């Protein structure tokens, strides 16, 4: 029964993610699921809740959500889950988003796993690719070495500012390694973080960013 609900959910959400840009498409969900299952192997958690939360975590993302739309709620209702299961999934999803440093802390093991799995896909080589894919979709500059990264901002300021993609590294991506909550997530983040630092150093060299 649980696998049937997961399959049903996959069918519904894939249609949604196929409409998003490459930074939050179906491949993103597949990678986050892989990360989550890797972490799950070392944690005691409800895999059913984790998998559904991964599948649904971006369907109502404010970056893509239309006015009056609540796809997350609508799909959860169609899956005919128990009230407890719906609440667990919603709680897990609520803690995933970074929100400019204003996101909700992950308190359950399921939430920690999904949060780490999603943030791992925001760093490293794939994180670099996604940052520039999203920046390109929004018409942002690749880099602006004169732009100062913000250390404090509201969620609204974080979402509305048209900062360059490289500035986004300093405002979010380079902060994620130290925010991982599971031991496996922390270990996986190390190499990805170092790769981003190497990339930024090379980018500065190629663009005379040090001058």
TrEMBL record:
It comes from the Bacteria. Pfam families: HD (PF01966). Signal peptide: none annotated. GO terms for molecular function: hydrolase activity. Residues 25-123 form the HD domain. CDD domains: HDc. PANTHER family: HD_PDEASE DOMAIN-CONTAINING PROTEIN (PTHR33594:SF1), SUPERFAMILY HYDROLASE, PUTATIVE (AFU_ORTHOLOGUE AFUA_1G03035)-RELATED (PTHR33594). This is Phosphohydrolase. It comes from Planococcus versutus.
């Amino acid at each position: 029964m649980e696998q049937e609900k997961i399959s049903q959910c996959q069918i519904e959400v894939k249609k949604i993610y196929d409409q998003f840009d490459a930074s939050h498409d179906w491949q993103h969900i597949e990678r986050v699921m892989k990360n989550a299952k890797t972490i799950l192997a070392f944690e005691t958690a409800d895999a059913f809740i984790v998998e559904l939360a991964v599948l649904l975590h971006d369907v109502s993302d404010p970056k893509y959500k239309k006015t009056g739309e609540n796809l997350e709620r609508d799909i959860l209702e169609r899956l005919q889950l128990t009230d407890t299961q719906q609440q667990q999934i919603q709680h897990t999803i609520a803690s995933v988003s970074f929100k400019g440093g204003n996101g909700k802390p992950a308190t359950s093991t399921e939430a920690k796993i999904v949060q780490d799995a999603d943030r791992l896909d925001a760093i490293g080589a794939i994180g670099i690719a996604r940052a520039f894919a999203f920046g390109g979709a929004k018409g942002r500059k690749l880099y602006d070495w004169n732009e100062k990264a913000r250390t404090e901002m509201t969620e609204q300021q974080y979402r509305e500012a048209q900062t360059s993609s490289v500035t986004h590294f300093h405002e979010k991506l380079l902060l994620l390694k130290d925010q991982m909550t599971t031991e496996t997530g922390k270990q996986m983040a190390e190499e990805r973080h170092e790769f981003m630092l190497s990339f930024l150093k090379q980018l500065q060299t190629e663009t005379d960013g040090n001058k």
